[in-house]
Specification:
Layout (H helix, E strand, L loop, with lengths): L2 H12 L4 E3 L10 H4 L9 E3 L12 H4 L5 E3 L20 E3 L20 E3 L20 E3 L20 E3 L20 E3 L20 E3 L17 E3 L13 E4 L4 E4 L17 H14 L15 H8 L3 E2 L6 E2 L16 H5 L4 E2 L14 E2 L2
Parallel strand pairs: 1-2, 2-3, 3-4, 4-5, 5-6, 6-7, 7-8, 8-9, 9-10
Antiparallel strand pairs: 11-12, 13-14, 15-16
Length: 366
């Protein structure tokens, strides 16, 4: 052990530091000085990012009994010892960008764990014991080799953020739909063909990202008016056109230019679903056979019926409206409609289509 490292650890132990930073120290083994004698019982936060560690000591929990945060991002750790379960106060564990192929079942014994980051490893499955982490709020397993998520994941009642991007997932457990506190779900760049029909039923789930699942053709109805990612990265060049393809007749319909303004503060636009519905409606209305030309199997049944029976028409310009449209493409909790669900504000509504040229906001009752 070099002199500077030994001095850093010695001072931390003598002065009973709660934080210890050992990032970028080129460590190949866990420093013995930190564990010898009585260990470092006052240490709560340990940072060991960007080293070359391959494993962790078996007596880690015994020597660092009050550790609450352990950051091991960007090492070469292949195995987590079963003794990880002795870190009973651990709340945050970051093992991203390592060489983990297996996650030991004992991870489920970390009853205080709130944040678990396992991105950029070689995991092929997750132990079902993850469902025992009742306090878990964040789980990031992106960039692994997962083909499925554990069904018992729905027992993580506190889970708010779940990221499983860049894996090989073919479907999602239906039990995910009953996670009561899930706010954000990101499963981009997988092999998903469909999503659970009840996904998004709980209003807490406001962000769902499913970009680059090329076989995914439909979304559950509960996800309408959520902030969603669609097939593709979402980035466009100036020369590209946004198109919607119908597989049954190899037909392409150009989406309106307003889609380029989604998410901007100064250019309020309707939701993607609403714009697509209006464009399809306008396209087929100009043909001789009208909407009869559209095959019933080209759209989900509920959307197909909406084309013939819109929910209403814009009070200002007369255009048909097919969905509940909000002034901005933001989560429900950030729109004027949120007051209805919270029961805090009474509102009166006039049907406006919210297009760029015809945007009228709702009037609040005095």
């Amino acid at each position: 052990m070099n002199t500077d490292l030994w001095k850093t650890i010695s001072i931390a132990k003598q002065e009973k530091h709660k934080n210890l930073y050992l990032n970028y120290k080129n460590l190949r083994k866990f420093p013995h000085e930190l564990l010898k004698d009585g260990g470092a019982r006052h240490l709560e936060h340990l940072y060991m990012k960007m080293n070359s560690l391959t494993t962790l000591p078996e007596n880690l929990g015994q020597k660092l009994p009050n550790l609450t945060e352990l950051y091991l991002h960007s090492n070469n750790i292949e195995v987590i010892p079963e003794a990880i379960s002795t870190l009973v106060k651990l709340q945050s564990l970051d093992l991203s960008n390592n060489a983990l192929a297996i996650l030991c079942p004992e991870i489920g014994q970390l009853k205080s764990l709130r944040h678990l980051r396992l991105a950029n490893n070689q995991l092929k499955f997750l132990p079902s014991e993850i469902g025992d982490l009742k306090e878990l709020q964040t789980l990031d397993v992106s960039a692994n080799c997962l083909t499925a998520l554990p069904e018992r994941l729905h027992l993580c009642f506190s889970l708010q953020y779940l990221a499983a991007d860049r894996n090989q997932l073919k479907d999602l457990p239906r039990q995910l739909c009953i996670l009561p506190n899930l706010k954000e779900l990101s499963v981009t760049s997988n092999n998903l063909k469909c999503l659970p029909q009840d996904l998004g039923r709980y209003p807490e789930l406001q962000y769902v990202y499913v970009d680059n699942n090329i076989q995914l053709y439909g979304l559950p109805s509960y996800l309408y008016n959520k902030v969603i990612g669609h097939s593709g990265c979402g980035s466009l060049t100036q020369d590209e056109e946004v198109k919607l393809s119908f597989s049954h007749r190899q037909m392409t319909i150009t989406l309106p230019d307003e889609i380029l303004g989604i998410g901007t503060e100064n250019d309020p636009v309707p939701t993607l679903q609403e714009m697509v519905m209006r464009t399809i409606y306008s396209f087929f209305r100009i043909s001789e056979k009208g909407l009869d030309l559209l095959s019933p199997i080209s759209l989900p049944r509920n959307l197909y019926k909406l084309l013939f029976y819109p929910l209403g028409h814009c009070h200002h310009c007369g255009k048909p409206m097919f969905t509940i449209v909000y002034p901005k493409c933001y989560p429900l909790m950030e729109t004027p409609m949120a007051a209805l669900y919270n029961g805090r504000t009474k509102m009166s509504f006039v049907a406006y289509c919210c297009s760029v040229k015809c945007l009228q906001l709702f009037d609040l009752l005095r």
